[in-house]
Structures are given as C-alpha cells and as structure tokens.
Amino acid sequence: MATKSGKSSGLNPVEEFHKAVAQKGKVRAVAEKMLELPPQVNPPLLGSQMRIWKQDPSVKGLDLPRTVYIHTQVNDGPRDSQIAIQGVPPVTPDPNRDFLIEPTNEAAFDAVHTYTVVRQVVTMYQRVLKKKLAWQWNINGNTEAIEVYPHAGETANAYYSREEKALKFFYFTPRNPAAKSKVYTCRSLDVVAHETGHAVLDSLKPDWISFDASAQTGALHESFGDLTSIFLILSQLDQVEFIVAQTKADLHQKSILASLAEEFGAAFRLTDGLRNADNDLKLSEVSSEVHELSQVFTGAVFDILADLFTSRRDPYVRDSAEVLYEVGKYMAGLTLRALIQAPDTNATFADVANAMLEIAKADGEEDCVKFIQKHFEFRQVLGPNAIAGPKELSQFGLYADRRGCCGTMQHPQYKPKFSLNGKGN
C-alpha cells in the first residue's frame, strides 16, 4: 500500500485500516474509508447502537425503549445489503454511526426500531444456516434488499409480500375506547418478528405459502411466524432474565413469552394478545382453519421448550436465565433445521416432528428427543393416537381456510381464483 509520499507502507488494506483506527479513532477512520472499505475488514468495527422497543410499548416492567447493538454496517435509512427502510424520511446516524433516536421523533424512531428487529431476526436465522440468507427474489444475480415500510398506511394489518419484495406495517385506531388513539403495528417486536419469519421461510420453502398448499403446510408457515417472535425474545439476554423473574422460572405462568402482540390484541379487547402460544390444543380439537390449526404446532414446540428448560435448570450450578437463553437458541435452530428437512410441498406436522426427532437424536439431545415424542403424541401428531387432522378442503376441490391468519397468509397474491364456496371472487 503506497503512502502519500509514494512509498509503500508494507501493510495490506486490512492492516492499513486497523492502523488508521488506532491512530485516528473509529469514527474518523470509518468516515474516511466508508466508501472504499476492503471487504476483509471485520464488520464489528462498523457496528451501530440502535434504540428500540424490545416488546410492545404497552408492556410494563422492561423500562422501554432500550439500546441494542447491531454488529454489522448500518447505512443511512437505516439500510444494509439485505434490508432497506422505505416510506418514511431516511434517518442519518450520529457521528459515531449510532441511531439513538427518541420515541418522540415518531417516524425516525419507528424506522430505526423496525429495521433493527428485522435485522435481529435475519441474523438469528443466519447463525443457524451458517450463511447469508437470500430472499425469494435473489436469483439470477438479483441482490435486491427487502423493503420495509414502518408506516405503510392506515388499517389493522401487517404483511410480507413476495411480489412487492416488502414487509409492510400499518397503523389503526382501536375499537377499544380504553386503548391508545392509534396502534402502530411496527412498534410491536412480536408483529415485526412474525412477519419477518414469513419472509425467511418463504426464502427457504417457496411453495409453502401458496393457497395450493395443504392446511397443515399453511399452518406451519403461520406457526413459524409466532415461533420466530418467541425465539427472538429468547435471543435477548435482558428479556430472558425478565421472563425468568416474571414467571419465577415457570414458563407456563403468564408472561411476555407466550402472549404475542399484546397492544394489537388489547385494541380488540383481547386479554392475552393476538396469540397465546401456551395452549393444550390437539388436532381433534381444532378446525381446518389455518391459524387455529397452527396453534397445535406452536403449542407443542412451546411445551418442548418449557420442559427442556425445566429439566436442564439447576440454579445451584447455573443462572436460570443462562439456561433459558441456551434452550431458546437450541430450539430455534432445531425448528428451522427440521422445517428445511421437511418436504418442499404439502409438508405435515408429522413430517416436521419426525425431522425434529431425527435431528435431536443426531445432536445427542436425548432429553429433547423424549419431550418431542411426548408433546407431539399428546397433540395427536405422532404415536398410536395420531390422526391426520381435520379434513383437507383440497379433497373437495377447495383451498385451505385462512380467514384467521395474519395479513401475509391472506395477501391477494396468494389467494385462489375462486372463493371457499367455489364461486369466483
């Protein structure tokens, strides 16, 4: 590398950059090199602090908002090579490349918060995949980022759209007069994580989201959204510690872990949020409506996680929060790997449950194997009492009923050409 005098410094680009950091400090060195950084430079040098809601703003006891650290390069917007905020004025970081916005600056804060939660979900699953996630449209040289709209418009909705290459989060006025004047779906970590989960799974199993898919396949998609919210919560040490204290280490006590999208649910007078992952539903107790069906799979995974935590917990040896964090990380990886291993079309709960058994056995996680078998047998997915579940509407030439699902699963691009009564839309 040549110096200003024309003589070679004898340093490679990475060494040059690290020398500049040592001499001038991170901010100055990064500012000078931002447009010409060598690809080998360690990303943590370019990380940013971000301020976010770590739960719905309505959740008490977490001292929200909080500051988190994104270890990769975050550009104005915020945006990076995979995620780009749209629809609101771009946010510029401070001289330290940090995005420490106050919630009173609503549009800017919502942009930073929403980007960060999407980034955290993608990073969480990339650690399992051990590679960079490619969106569904990233083929034949296409490298477009997913566009994320925190303020997409006014309606009680949020969704992922493959056609729009976007995640869209809306705001609405609640029906419940006791609720806030407006609810912004982007401010819910649960909602943002759920919809990002759909985008991640669509990149891995593109045929699962179609209305041509079976009800159980659609239910796996919807369940993965809910489970993504749970896994993201458990990937954050402060939230894990809060949950252990909130429940006294009993995950079947009411907590932020099992109750999803509390503020959204309260707007419709629901006391446990939009979803409750801690349920005892069996296949024989639900209809073929995709969201209702999804609760069976979600509940089974939640129970496996809870049992695994209880069996491994030993507060005289390790802190319970440490154990829960490790269990959450393992369950996130196990679930994603099992979904990938399942058939590319018309996967069933049994397909995924059997894949979980196979993977856990290969991992040497014998206690987990026992809990997988136990809870999927209880749910009538595996074992001697297993049933196929409610009759598939495909048997009658119709598509799965998705009326209770999130906006993604009901998006027009995935809808059939005729309605459930067999008549044209």
Quaternary organisation: single chain
Instruction: Find the structural class using helix and strand composition.
Output: alpha/beta
Unreliable residue stretches: 1-6, 417-425
- Strand/helix succession: HHEEEHEEEEEHHHEHEHHHH
Number of domains: 1
Number of strands: 10
Helix content: 25-40%
What is the average per-residue confidence, as pLDDT, rounded to a whole number?
85
- The number of distinct helices, counting runs of at least 4 residues, comes to 11
Taking the alpha carbons of the first and last residues, their distance comes to 66 Å
What general form does the structure show? globular
User: Rg from C-alpha positions?
Assistant: 23 Å
- Give the biggest sheet: 4 strands, mixed
Strand content: 5-15%
Give the arrangement of secondary structure elements.
Elements: H1 13-24, H2 26-33, E1 48-52, E2 66-70, E3 83-85, H3 106-129, E4 146-149, E5 158-161, E6 166-169, E7 171-172, E8 183-184, H4 189-204, H5 215-234, H6 237-247, E9 259-260, H7 262-266, E10 275-276, H8 290-312, H9 320-341, H10 349-363, H11 366-378
Parallel strand pairs: 3-4, 4-6
Antiparallel strand pairs: 1-2, 5-6, 7-8, 9-10
Helix pairs in contact: 1-2, 3-4, 4-5, 5-8, 5-9, 6-9, 8-9, 8-11, 9-10, 10-11
